[in-house]
Amino acid sequence: MAIPIRRRRGDRQGRASFDLRRTSFGFALLALLVAGGGLALRAVWESAARHPAFAVIVVLSLPALAVLLLRRRRARRVAAAVTEAAYDIVDEGLAELDAAEAARAEVPPAAPEPADRPVDYARLDPYAFEEAVAGLCRRDGCADAEVVGGAGDLGADVLGTTPDGRRVVIQCKRYGPTSRAGSQDLQRFGGTCYAVHAADVALVVSTGGFTEPALDYAEQCAILCYGPEELAAWSEGGAPPPWEAAAPAGQPDAEVSGP
C-alpha cells in the first residue's frame, strides 16, 4: 500500500517565478549588507586596537556567537528572516517606483498656446519686424515678398509682387509707443519708392504711429501709412491687405489725389 507523502509548502510559494528586476534589486541590497558588514567589522577591529578593554569584550562574545552559528536550525531561521525582510524592502521599493511612473503618466500635458495669439510687433527687433511684415505679404498673396533692407537699401525694407502683378515697396519702422514716424522719414521714402524702386504700392508700417505732418505728406504722395491699429487689423485678418486698399497702377486714388 502506497503511503502518500505530504510535501511542505513554503510561505513564499508565489516567488517561484523569476523576476529579473526584483532579483537585481535583491542582489544589490545583499551587496550593500555585505559591504556594510565589512565596514562594521573594520570599525570594530580598529576600535579594539585603540581600546583593549573593548577587544576583551569582543573576544569573550565570540564563543557565544559560535554556539549560535552551530545551531543550524536557528541559523536557517535567521537567514530566512533576513531574506524575507530583504524581499519585502525590494518589493516596497519597486511598488513605489511603479506608483511614481503611473503618477507621471497621469499628469496631463501642458496646454499649448493658441496659434492665433496676436503678435506684439513692438517687442520684435527691427530685423524680426521686417521679416514679420514680409510674412504677412506672403500670407496674403505676395509669394515673392522678401526682406531687402540693409545698408544701401534706399528706403526699401520689403519688396514683393501682388497677385495682380503690382510692385509693392514697404519701409518698416519698428518704434516704441512714444516714438512716431515723422515727416522727414516719409520724405526720404517718398524720394526713392517711386523713382528708384518703381513702386505701384508704397507702404510705410510704423509700430509707433505717425505725426500729422507725416500723414499729410503721405497723402500728397499716395503713400499708405499703417500704424499699430492698421497693422493689428491686417495681421489678425480684420482688414484686407494694403494693396487692396491702394488704387491700381495708373489710376490715382480719389482720396490721395487732390486738386
UniProtKB/TrEMBL annotation:
Keywords: Endonuclease, Hydrolase, Membrane, Nuclease, Transmembrane, Transmembrane helix
Chain ranges of the Restriction endonuclease type IV Mrr domain: 123-221
Domain of life from the UniProt record: Bacteria
Residue spans crossing the bilayer: 25-45, 51-70
Protein name from the UniProt record: Restriction endonuclease
UniProt keyword annotation of Glycoprotein present: no
UniProt keyword Nuclease, yes or no: yes
Annotated region described as Disordered, given as residue ranges: 236-259
Pfam families: Mrr_cat (PF04471)
UniProt GO molecular function: endonuclease activity
